[in-house]
Amino acid sequence: MVGSVPPITAVPLPRRPLDPADPDDPIRGWYENELGWATVPGKPVRLLVGERFDVLEVPAEAGHAALGRLAPGSPVAVEGGRMRLLVAAGSAEELPGILQWLEWGALPLDLTALGPGTLMRAPVPPAPQPPGHPSARTPRSPGPQAPAPTGRPRPEPSQGAAVWVRPPVPGCGAEASLPTMSASGGAGDAPDLVRLVDTLATHCHRVRLRRACAQPLAFS
Questions:
Q1: DSSP string for 54-105
Q2: pTM of the predicted structure, to 2 decimals
Q3: Per-residue confidence of the chain (220 residues) as pLDDT tens digits?
Q4: How far, in Å, CA of 35 to CA of 168, rounded?
Q5: In the sheet that 39-40 helps form, which strands lie side by side, from edge to edge?
Q6: Cβ contacts of residue 34 below 8 Å, gap of 6+?
């Protein structure tokens, strides 16, 4: 009788050692070691888009109005009045077709997608929280940061810098919470990409109309 095969355990990726001489290296190390997300050389730290996730970028006002379409763990960042919602890899290619299908294609929406070959500025990682802390999965505004794992002070986000509204959660499969196409077999509680795009397009259109109405009329 053949014995049962023991379960195969996942082998963690090798952790890249941090450079004590580089103040940005704890940020780079957090993304590479804790999340497995690729960064590119240079400063500021930037994330490689298109491998583990794509990005939908909209005005922050429109993005905030659409947060209810996301799972609690879906990562969302803001920078300079723009909100970046992380979505499943491949979504950037689907966006034009989704907008056409939803009959938004003919309107000038301030809704863009970042896919393979693009970069996203890496927000400062959130301060570490103890297991079970109530703020571990809730949005936090930038504030005093806890010391970095290396013992050096964690860098403070500068004015207009990228910050997390909803940070990714290491070790919890951040990609599993990303919005995806329902038809492609999204697993778990992943939100539906089509519904998210429709909501974003609606609020982008409303933001555009409000801004147009607020502009003074030009008289010749």
A1: EEEEEEHHHHHHTGGGS-TT--EEEETTEEEEEE-TTHHHHHHHHHHHTT-T
A2: 0.75
A3: 434 434 434 444 556 555 555 656 889 999 999 999 999 999 999 999 999 999 999 999 999 999 998 988 899 999 999 999 999 999 999 999 999 999 998 889 999 999 999 999 999 998 765 555 544 444 443 333 333 444 444 444 444 589 999 999 887 677 888 999 864 444 456 789 999 999 999 999 999 998 888 766 555 4
A4: 8
A5: 39-40, 46-48, 119-121
A6: 125, 170, 171
